[in-house]
Amino acid sequence: MTTVLLYTAGVVFFVGAILVSIGLHELGHMIPAKRFGGKVTQYFIGFGPTVWSKQVGETEYGVKAIPLGGYVKIVGMLPPGAEELAGPVEHDAQGNEVHKVRKSNTGLFTQLVSDARSAEYETITAADEDRLFYKMPPWKKIVVMAGGPSVNILIAFLLFWTVFSTYGDMSAASAEPAPGRPVVAEVSRCVIPYSEQRTDCREGDPDAPAFEAGLLPGDTITDFNGTAVTSWDQLRGLIRDNASGAAVIGFERDGQREVGRTSTTVELRPDDLTGEDETLTEVGFLGVSPEAELVVPTGGPLYTIERMGSLTVDTVQAIGTLPVKVFEVGQAIVGVEERQADSPVSIVGGGRIAGETASTTEVPGGDRAFSLLALVAGFNLFIGVFNFVPLLPLDGGHIAGAAWESVRRRLAWLRRRPDPGYVDVARMLPVAYGFGLVLMVMGVVLIIGDVVAPISLAG
């Protein structure tokens, strides 16, 4: 019963945290839009049927039934096409002038653009003319559209900072030999050439020197060829420098001093002890591994920025391979292959991971709490970076349009040519619809995959 409650609590926490993140993302758009004089008529979390809403001033705030995103409605996102402007001025029921857009266009894509413009301007009056989004200076448009994903990245930073500065960065954790005299954790039964990268002993493999010397796991090595040993790094250097020479090894076992005699063997091993350089060098080899402890690095804001830089690069690479990864999830759904542990997940999969994390009672509660924070931080980083992709309907598409508008206006000014006017992002709507459809299909595939072929922490 406790496990079920913890699992449910983990799912609820994760979903709630993502919904809060979505709400803050939309505030990142709405607040600067209003500050710059724009008109925001709707602020909603979720999609589909409205569950609750309230009108406050000129903005309707609400929640919709499907918690897979959110939106704010900023008036005048699309500029009217010059060739589509209506002739006579029309008026609404209150007598206000209404800006109309013709719908008479030929061609499927042209009609899509025309219909979108028409819907955009159905409720716009003359009083709104100076508050239309497309009329804002390019830098203001960029601030408004970058505000949302920037909030997600800020959330990720604050959460990662909290985790890294207290619990530590588990993704960068490493096993390092315990301080003090080396305690043997493992003794090799035989000598296996480094280049073969195997762990099983085969016929013809010579006995490892440590095995010949009688060393056992749990022994504490105290000296090597008469030199007192105080650390693993020191012992490792003595062994490597000994080449194929005789080795007298002093060690303690159950409080008793013992001595083992053997000869180290010469092996080709990496010369760089950090593992970054794989150049092989002939060195002495004994065949023991020391007891190690997990070292988890910690750090403040600068460390967090550095780590987020690396994580952002990984995220960009993941976005680049997203279609392939989603296709692999589709194969896992129909049973063609196993679901990969590094495959992308939807909010459903994230909820399952959060539930498993919260209900793993073998792990201390503090560790589970910090793992949940890191999970939410990772989702926010992905949402933020993904929304900067310069394609509509993502925020990055509008940012790219505003940036191009600024560039071409500056170029026109430098060349003393007429102002080219606003960039018509509506012309990219067919691409936006196509890309939006692709995103929807990928989302559905991931959700189904997270249900029928989920990723499990238990592997």
UniProtKB/TrEMBL annotation:
Sequence intervals crossing the membrane: 6-25, 142-164, 369-389, 425-449
Subcellular location: Membrane
EC assignment: 3.4.24.-
Keywords: Hydrolase, Membrane, Metalloprotease, Protease, Transmembrane, Transmembrane helix, Zinc
Any one GO molecular function term: metallopeptidase activity
Topology within the bilayer: Multi-pass membrane protein
InterPro entries listed in its UniProt record: PDZ_6, Pept_M50_Zn, Peptidase_M50
Keyword hit for Disulfide bond: no
Highest taxon, organism lineage: Bacteria
First-listed, main subcellular location of the protein, grouped into a coarse class: membrane
Pfam families: PDZ_6, Peptidase_M50
Peptidase M50 domain boundaries: 14-411
Family statement: Belongs to the peptidase M50B family.
Protein name (database record): Zinc metalloprotease Rip1
Organism expressing this protein natively: Nocardioides aquaticus
